[in-house]
Amino acid sequence: DAASAQSQFLNSPGSDANLVDVIGLPTPDISGSVDPSAFVGVKLLVMMRETIPTLRSKIAEMEHKPTVLIVDVIGLDALKLGEEFNMLTYVFIASNARFLAVVMYFPTLDKDDEEEHIIKKKPLAIPGCEPLRFEDTLEPYLDPNDQTYRECVPLGLLYPTADGYIVNTWDDMESKTLKSLQ
Does the record carry Glycosyltransferase as a key word (predicted)? Predict the structure, then answer.
């Protein structure tokens, strides 16, 4: 399994066990928070949110506290631990800068802009970026009445609270978008 492979790798000759400390967190019970038929992404977001108290306890128990916290898109709720434990915080974006720009901008839309894009299927103007064609809109952003939308859209407000981003891109590929994010 993945956990034993990870453990085997970290304990292999040449690895410095003092550099990495892997701590397993128990899987939270989310049965009362999420419909069993909900989109798997919603389940993961809720699970990640529910593990924050356990993660907080584990960090508090550490003799040497981490100085940096790196989360991915489903771990954004943990960014608040950075301030609590005086850690720098970074968000790892496996996608590109355009994805980051869209998810950061979407929660700031007013109802008229949202209706123009979602209902009338008009391109969405994102400041400093090329407009987002309706056909390119991420599925979680298409139905404001869906739990996926209600979970994902507010997360966009958490991105600016990070100290920085690790994004899968380079300047020559997305210079306009990267400039808009600075």
Answer: yes
Phi (first) and psi of residue 157, to 5 degrees: -75, -15
Beta bridge partners of 124: 132
The predicted model scores a pTM of: 0.83
pLDDT category at 10 given cuts 50, 70, 90 is low
Positive or negative, the CA dihedral 170, 173, 174, 175 is positive
Which domains are seen in the chain, by residue range? 2-181 (3.40.50.2000)
* 164-167 β-sheet, strand order: 68-71, 88-93, 164-167
- In one-letter notation, the amino acid at residue 152 is C
Give CA–CA dist 177/182, Å, rounded.
9
